[in-house]
Amino acid sequence: xxxxxxxxxxxxxxxxxxxxxxxxxxxxxxxxxxxxxxxxxxxxxxxxxxxxxxxxxxxxxxxxxxxxxxxxxxxxxxxxxxxxxxxxxxxxxxxxxxxxxxxxxxxxxxxxxxxxxxxxxxxxxxxxxxxxxxxxxxxxxxxxxxxxxxxxxxxxxxxxxxxxxxxxxxxxxxxxxxxxxxxxxxxxxxxxxxxxxxxxxxxxxxxxxxxxxxxxxxxxxxxxxxxxxxxxxxxxxxxxxxxxxxxxxxxxxxxxxxxxxxxxxxxxxxxxxxxxxxxxxxxxxxxxxxxxxxxxxxxxxxxxxxxxxxxxxxxxxxxxxxxxxxxxxxxxxxxxxxxxx
Length: 341
Description:
The structure is a single chain. 45% of the residues lie in helices and 18% in strands. It is built from twelve helices and ten strands. The strands form three sheets. A five-stranded antiparallel beta sheet has the order 7-3-10-9-8. It has a three-stranded antiparallel beta sheet with strand order 4-5-6, covered by helices on one side.
């Protein structure tokens, strides 16, 4: 939908003032305070047309106008300017470079905490979901007479560990045999190639240890399959500070943060650049006054996950878009330096 330059200036001014104050914006304010060189009457006429077009609405008969989701969308896609992060803002994000962590999952958890603290929003990050990722090593240790501690390392830097029960007492020969078998069969295997047929073949090669160790093979597969569904959350309580999101919808949003599959659906499809999803664009009616801003991060030159924030629709889009872009680029660099091939 094409807008005249006059309407673009008025819509942009309404969005930016409403983001700051949360109050409806009137024609007198626009004529006096924003540098729009038009009379209040002319501005009112333009506002009436913008209302008819669906970009703004009038909450009360005597009130000014507020942006609609369509108005925010137009602003984000075509009207907002670029925001340049200050040195102090960049320094705050650069704290990520000082992380002392042992694996990529801990890095992402801490990254979410940093992002939530700085933006004042809830933050979310998906674990690497690199289909080309491979299993680098599997270590196994006896942790009891009938239990094994397994530690799995993937090429994307993820470490998974779990204690598994066996169905028979462990022996040194059994442990040596199993260690050799799982590393021969799993190491170098792409995660996407770990099919049921492959697992059946591994179990078949257990021979006399099939009964005892088949559950451990299943546990290895279960841990590896869980990688692509992992989501990390930070600052969920930040959402409580936003009066724009009413109680019932806030409760549903808090519950959303507990449903990893839904979060994966919302932000797990990032391929390039910063994506902004406003209101019901997120596919959930209770998010009609919320926004998600997210961007992908990369490892070994491939996009493998996403990081972003969840907040109100009335959010400083230029600043948040620049922040997420900078943060995702910085996160990619840190992960590449720490966990890349």
